[in-house]
Write a structure and sequence with these properties.
This protein has 199 residues and is of the alpha+beta class. It has two domains: 50 residues, no CATH class; 138 residues, no CATH class. Helix content is 38%, strand content 11%. The protein has six helices and five strands. The longest helix is centred in the first third of the chain and has 26 residues.
Length: 199
């Protein structure tokens, strides 16, 4: 928690030279003036704390439009959603995280950044003699390039107090943005399926 005007007033009072001219009485006019001078200092301190928080794109609110401009957002995928503040933040974080990678942890991190922390991935493979067990599903060679993202039924984004814009719905549902991002970033030549409700 930041310092208050009272705190800054006390600090200013401690900077005064000793002597009878500089009253230390809390009810004196001088001390009231120092407390008043401490108020803008406390506001500046609070704004510095806000700026520190805004440096993290996942917590951005006031600087969200600057983050979006720097990352060339909204793009094709972020236009798919209803663009609540939280969806815009998710798009910024996803764009930063999504600057490279084709591994399983990479795609799970993308899903988590978009609000799906429980997502899992199923990778399919063709059945090969000596490696398959009885009862396993049979898959031809095409299955080598297939993978599936397993997700909960649907994403529900709830409005956060103090972090939403006027007129935003209290809740929004949808998976279009995630599907678009994943389809754009999947390995070339691979086939991606989405499975909802089995995580």
């Amino acid at each position: 928690m930041g310092l208050t005007g009272e705190d800054y007033g006390r600090q200013l009072s401690q900077l005064l030279p000793p002597g009878a001219a500089w009253s230390r009485d809390p009810d004196s006019t001088l001390q009231a003036l120092l407390r008043a001078l401490g108020e803008p200092m406390a506001r500046a301190h609070q704004r510095a704390d806000d700026l520190y928080r805004e440096a993290d794109p996942a917590e951005a609110f006031e600087t969200l439009t600057r983050w979006e401009a720097a990352l060339d957002l909204p793009d094709d995928c972020s236009l798919q959603g209803s663009l609540t503040v939280q969806e815009r933040v998710n798009a910024v974080v996803t764009k930063i995280i999504g600057l490279g990678g084709q591994s399983r942890p990479y795609f799970l991190a993308l899903a988590e950044a978009m609000g799906y922390p429980t997502a899992t991935i199923t990778e399919y493979q063709s059945r090969r003699h000596g490696r398959a067990s009885m009862g396993e599903a049979y898959g031809g060679e095409d299955w080598e390039d297939v993978w599936q993202l397993n997700l909960p039924d649907t994403l529900m984004i709830e409005r956060r107090h103090g972090r939403s814009a006027m007129g935003e719905p209290y809740r929004a549902w949808g998976n279009n943005q995630l599907e678009c991002v994943m389809q754009k970033r999947k390995p070339g030549g691979s086939i991606l399926f989405f499975n909802y409700g089995d995580t």
